[in-house]
Here is the input.
Amino acid sequence: MAAPLATPPVFAPAGFAVAGEPSLPTPLRRLAALDYGLAETLILLGLPPIALVGAQDWHRWVVEPPLPPGVVNLGSSREPNLELLQQLQPDAILSTPYLAGISHRLEQIAPVLTFPLYVPEGRPLALATAALERIATLTGRAAAGAAVLAQMDATFAAARTRLAAVRDRPLYLVSVMDSRHVRVYGAQSLFQDVLARVGLSNAYQGRTNFWGFTTLGIEALDPDPRAVLVYFDPVPAGAMQALGRNPLWTHLPFVRSAQVHGLPAVLMFGAAASAMRFARLLADALAPQGGSNG
Amino acid sequence: MADLALAGHAPRPARPWMLAAGITIPAAVLSMAALAQALPPALWLTAIWAPETGDGRQLLVHYSLLPRMAAAILCGAALALAGTIFQQVLRNPLASPTTLGVAAGAKLALALATLWAPGLFVFGREWIALGGGALAIGAVFALSWRKGLSPLAVVLAGLVLGLYCGAVSAALILFKEHYLTGLFIWGSGALSQQGWETVATLSLQCAAVAGLVALMIRPLTVLSLDDAGAHSLGVSLHGTRLAALSLGVALTAVVVSGVGVIGFIGLIAPALARLAGARRLRDQLIWAPVMGAGLLWLTDQLVQRTGGLSGGILPTGAVTAVFGSPLLLWLLPRLRTAAAPPRTEAAGPTRRQRAVPMLLALGGLLLLGMALSLCLGRAPDGGWSLAGLDALPGLLPWRAPRALAALCAGAMLALAGGILQRLLRNPMASPEVLGVGAGAAFGLIVALFTVTAAGREIQLAAACAGAFGVLFIIVLLGRRTGFTPERVLLAGIALGALFDALVGALTASGDPRGLLLLNWMTGSTYQVDAPQALWSAAAAVVLIALTALCARWLDLLPLGDAPGQALGLNLGRVRLILLGLAAGLTATATLVVGPLTFVGLMAPHLATRLGLHRAVPQLAGAALVGAFIMLLADWLGRMIAFPWQMPAGLIATLIGGPALMWLLAKR
Here is the structure.
């Protein structure tokens, strides 16, 4: 699924003050983003990247905030086009430890700022917030950064209020892989951190990798009678129909009681913007009567 | 073609049932334990015949645990039967259900349908996969038709087509990874079931095919004779081969379409049956499916018991190789070869006068390609631009290392392929079969998954360690068997399958690092920088010079062991040296362009087609052709999908595959 974005720590811990780095022109203006989560953070701050990897798939996986026109597509998220990047002459390159293998080549083009968002034992939401603050400082947009933080608090608080009615129902958050397998988001996922902020619990308490998900057969889902299942777009063609004919699926308590909700696409490996989008969409799906003011 | 049989022909009574019991009983015990854990035995009968819909445990037993066991047993038996047929018809112990490109064709069809015709999935995934497999095998038959479906022609066509379909699938995955993750799960053979539908379909299909196989036992037995012998018994070779291969393919296709790609069972089960004493084909056709069923059942039970990475699924198809490969390695010294190994086509008449102009022409072409690769590129707006002297210095640091590295890797792989094809007397030998590339991949996996933020140097060192680790194992195994060609091939294939399986399991788990790996696996030169390019060029020069010293051996070896020994060659030592050379060439190239070494299979054949036959001209021609193909592939990869960059190894396969297929069909 979505862009593979991030790996372990090692480099500068999030929130580490770099404003004084002599090689950096401050404030930074022309930034290239090698990660969707960092790009969405830049857009939130009102300074869209000049170039981004995988720009053509943004509308399908991230959706909001929309990508402004004119952002140059750098190609694959694993192999950003270096020749092209050099010709664009960015002030700095925002990257993640996922691309540690090419950091020495990126350094030849422009200073590289590495932001770990997904790390072992990590808290993606906290790391995303830290990255937001650091980027706001580096780009001289501290005020915009504070405004986004306030907006996040307000969004989560509003969703928490609206979702109070379903607080006792644990949630399965899944992406449907095919008619037999789902990817379940759990500990260390961005969604898990948002659930905590809006006062809900995760029905899946098992192990996950450090992007916060694991792939399970349908039969491994625990038939908890209180559970609610939420799945994200996109769903593979024919998969929901095939599930409808699958006795193990149709006998699951949340299927029988029609507690299965489809959500539009939300970037599961995203940052601040995706976290807010998830909270809002979740409230819309589970508490539609509450009005939307997030 | 290397029929495998028992080692000592000691008068040991044949008791295949003992080995079969040794495999099946643990599987049965584990299954019972799993059932007991899920549901008290008192309720088993109810759960089997009429599960109560309110009881989740009974539903799980009825719709998941039991059908999964049935699917494992059925698929194992079907793949083993298919493997026995393939090995018999193709007279090659390396033949297995995946050899003929059925699985690769099915996978490609699924990927294409997912991306551009998702509506087709309404009819069911099985039919799309079946259609793709049928098209692939149809193409294999068409390519080898003119040669009377001779074993060699079929194997070669299948190999080429399989690699080709695999490369196209990989290209799609690189571009559309987000859309195709479901394919990874299927691609590594997830056996999990949620109902009896698949099992019912599978058992009907398998029973029908098995019935037809039973009718063909006599003509199949005759096929193990050589062509003349079979003819004299009045058997139509063409018809029998077509019929038998079709049955084997049908078995493979139903399994692949039902549950996905499960490697190794079809290769190992027939070998186990023979080892356990099933000498006659009739016995093999009975015992191989029993072994296969037991093996897959046992593997699947163990998989369910241990669970996957990060608590998720672990595709059984990937794990079969993890168990199967060591088994095959253990079997190797116990197998003996009954027939002579396959030969490359006899060296044609020497046309020395044509060799020099041809080599000069190839060299010129290479220089022209280098100039083009460095100067012609794409501008940021996507338009074409020919870099002048002013712009070139800025662009060279990005373009030159990749071009040079691709060129050197192409030459080295072609040379390695040429050496191996002569040494092993097998035209399907290519650097892949040594398992060296897989070893490098394994090293890289370990680095990516144990070292946080593994930098370039660590990745390189780990890949190097992996490659030479495999080389060491091959040499160790080879010493015990005198480096006979088929042992080396089997050892390499076993090691290769082991590491491929690990890679498969990792990508199926959905870990983004799996995709990072995929990039390298498909032959990307993206990460090559100037020092690495220069280093690999130096290595190439040294290794190529060493190869030139071995020219006489390489001329003699394809003639067979006897002429070489008559001329005073110490075969064991000669093989060790050449093998080491081929492995060194492969390892060095693999570090740069990844383990997709199709060019190593292809270039020697192309050189032969160009009229270069003797060792020195043929290998020199192969090296030049290989270098040119990889150089062109790297340039095309950087250009055609700009700003995306397609891996060079993949492009080489995409452009070289059709060329080789055309050559195959033309003869």
